[in-house]
Design brief:
The chain is mostly helical and 140 residues long. It contains eight helices and no strands. The radius of gyration is 18 Å and the shape is elongated. The protein starts with a helix and ends with a helix.
Length: 140
């Protein structure tokens, strides 16, 4: 059975996997607390991390409480925004990615890190996006 200590670990795993600062472990913890009953009932055998707990909740979305549903919708909005930001950045920076980062593998922030290293050489639009996204990832 999933206990609160496991919920804290799951929150940390979701927060770090999904957003690296965009979705904080604290906001993931809030979702997991709101959905604790559902996680225990439907997802106790799911190993936390890489979005598996969220996927399990999504698979049971017709059975979750209103409180869990609201929390789940909130986290879904954050994830949608994250994917929009990633897609927009890739589109705006396509030429710079090809020029400066063509040997860099996608994932785990490697492309953004590559662009940040050569920020002074980027096209203005891409440089602005990289600065904005990078600033959003820095913890205050």
């Amino acid at each position: 059975m999933l206990k609160m200590k496991s919920l804290s670990s799951a929150a940390l795993a979701i927060g770090l996997t999904v957003g690296s600062g965009v979705l904080s472990p604290a906001s993931a913890q809030g979702v997991l607390e709101a959905c604790e009953t559902e996680i225990v009932e439907f997802c106790s055998t799911v190993e936390p991390g890489n979005g598996r707990v969220l996927s399990c909740l999504y698979a049971h979305e017709t059975k979750i409480s209103p409180e869990c549903g609201v929390a789940f919708e909130d986290i879904a909005d954050v994830i949608d925004g994250l994917f929009f930001t990633i897609g927009s950045t890739l589109a705006i920076c396509a030429a710079d990615l090809e020029k400066h980062c063509s040997d860099t593998k996608f994932g785990q922030g490697r492309l953004l890190s590559c662009l940040a290293k050569v920020q002074s050489d980027l096209e203005p639009a891409c440089g602005g996006v990289v600065a904005e996204v990078s600033e959003g990832l820095v913890d205050d």
